[in-house]
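Hello,

Our lab assistant flagged a job as stuck in the queue for most of the afternoon. It eventually completed. Since we weren't sure the result was trustworthy after the delay, we are filing this so someone can double-check. Below is the sequence as submitted and the structure that was eventually returned. Let us know if re-running is recommended.
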Amino acid sequence: MSFIRLRRKNAAIACAAGACIAGIPLAATAAYMGVSLGGCRTELAQVKAEAETAERAQGYILKHDLQESHVIMEEDLVRISIVGEEGSIYEALSEDQVIGKRCSLSMKKGAVISSAVLYEGEEILPDLRLQDFTHISLPEGLEKDDYVDIRIVFPDGEDYIVAGHKKVLGTVAKAAEAEGSGAEAGSGTESVSLCVSEEEILRLASAYVDTVLYTDAELYAIKYVEEFQKPAKTNYPVNPQVFGLMGWDPNMGEKIYFEGEEKRRETLNGNIAGYLNGSLGSVLRSVENPETDVSLNGNGADASGEYAVKEDKGPEEIEFFE
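-- returned structure --
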């Protein structure tokens, strides 16, 4: 019996020893996992706290579809918070960078707003084009982003606005005319780049023809003092040929004519003809009376063929060829 008890005792000791040997790694593993889990929880809590206290950037997505050139308002947008890696998907924009800007293209509901699809300024209409003008007299010191009115002045002093409040998109400086002339390259401006509509293109073309027909007529630009000044309104009456073209030109957007434009053109033509014929009459009288020194000062009554005098007839019968 004592032998059996001894064997049982030894077996129990062996089992206990085996359990201890096996339990030590398990206990160590459990302890390690417990420590690791505690560390993870601490780190997670720290990250969460940092995220909650961090300043979140904001971005915007569209609440509904928007058309090209639409002015974006607050009710068009859904504000979103941008954290961490979301910055690679959404561009952080402030309210001032979005509200009041225009869409450069049509966009669908849920589209992400970015600075690449926004622009500031007037609506970009389908008939707008960039054009360089070399026949407009430009003021000294004209720079990119200045605003100008394009005007035409006639020999009798009548002065009209052909295109109002145009933003200067670029200029080309004059080169020196000749070596040794004392002129510096870049002194003055040779051409100006403007964004013009189809209507403005036609009005400017008509005005240019007037400067060719009427000596001393001049097409010139005049600067605004400040960009925010109220734009001047066009009041230049185009010639009959251009007026007719404007009536059917399919490339024109909204057709804008000021009241009585055709009548005002007739009046303008009559005024110029009367002024120039009167000037020529003064010259003829000065020829008859050499004591009177009267000249046209280049007002157009030269040998260019713009005027003709019938033989044996007085100045009142001078013919004016348009």
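-- support follow-up --
The delay was a queue issue, not a problem with the job. The result is valid. The first strand starts at residue 57 and ends at 62. The CA atoms of residues 173 and 189 lie 4 Å apart.
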